[in-house]
Amino acid sequence: MTPTGGSRNVRALVTVKTYPTPSKTYSELVCTAVVVPGEGLLRLFPIQFRDMPYEKWYKKYDWINVTAEPHGGRDKRPDSYRPVQDSIEVVGHVDSSHGWAERKRLILPIASPSLEELRDQRKSHNGPSLGIFRPAEVLDLDWAPTDREWSGGDHAKLTQQSLFGQDRSPLQKLPYEFRYRFRCDDPRCLGNHHVMILDWEIGALFLYMRDRHGEMTALEKVRDKFLGELCGPDKDTHFYVGTAHYPRETWLILGVFWPPKDPQPALFG
Ligand SMILES: [Zn+2]
């Protein structure tokens, strides 16, 4: 890929990457949401994450430099950018010290009040297809079984020769879909959101635990982490969300932002 018209170099903070999906052209692909200071969230897609050299394997809250251009074509979302994969360079990291102070400084100013607000902005004027908001209450995390094996078509995509010839373990099919139930602090909210979670980390946690402790324990560990810990009463939990393209545009949860709550002021008297 070579940069063409509209391409730009950005310094961006990685917030979340999705579990890889099979791709006809690239074997498997990842979508990454990044924050560009002063601008907001951008989607970097496609990225052949596991085919990149290790030094390019960025983590959450890494700063990266990347050359990217707007998608155009079929993807009309204004915040979708096609990265030049070779241009990706990890140049720093924002740690969680001082109660996530620096992460909060970078992320919280771009938060929206609710999922309803994001939906309305998106619909009314081709607004952003990515966002972050604070759910008023996270009610549950649950799961539903799905196909345990890749479909024939997906299997064929995944077994293509990697363009980079890099050896990597086969992409595992997740046998469950995980969803949060939550409500927003918004009069428009019906209070019954039940939204799929695409975060690579929830898939990775499930697979890691399943291989060691079996499936039932792995599911409980996922709930302990993603509900008990990330949405615990001591956390100021936010969801990163974005729209999926097909079959129609739907908002999905890309990941969780879970800084500790600010300490309560001491009570007098
Ligand atoms: Zn809502």
Please name the defining characteristics of this protein.
269 residues; alpha+beta; OB fold (Dihydrolipoamide Acetyltransferase, E2P); 2 domains; 3-stranded antiparallel beta sheet; 5 helices; 13 strands; 33% strand; binds zinc ion
Explain how this protein is built.
This protein has 269 residues and is α+β, with helices and mostly antiparallel strands. The protein folds into two domains: 90 residues, OB fold (Dihydrolipoamide Acetyltransferase, E2P), CATH 2.40.50; 144 residues, no CATH class. 22% of the residues lie in helices and 33% in strands. It contains five helices and 13 strands. The strands form three sheets. Strands 1-3-4-6-5 form a five-stranded mixed barrel. The protein has a three-stranded antiparallel beta sheet with strand order 8-12-13, with helices on one face. Strands 9-10-11 form a three-stranded antiparallel beta sheet, with helices on one face. The radius of gyration is 19 Å and the shape is globular. The model has no long low-confidence stretch (mean pLDDT 92). Bound molecules: zinc ion. The site of zinc ion has 8 residues, from helix 2.
Bound ligands, named by name, code or SMILES: zinc ion
User: Stretches where pLDDT falls below 50 for ≥5 residues?
Assistant: none
The rounded distance between the terminal residues' Cα atoms is 66 Å
Spatial strand arrangement across the major sheet: 1-3-4-6-5
Order of helices and strands: EEEEEEEHHEEHEEHHEE
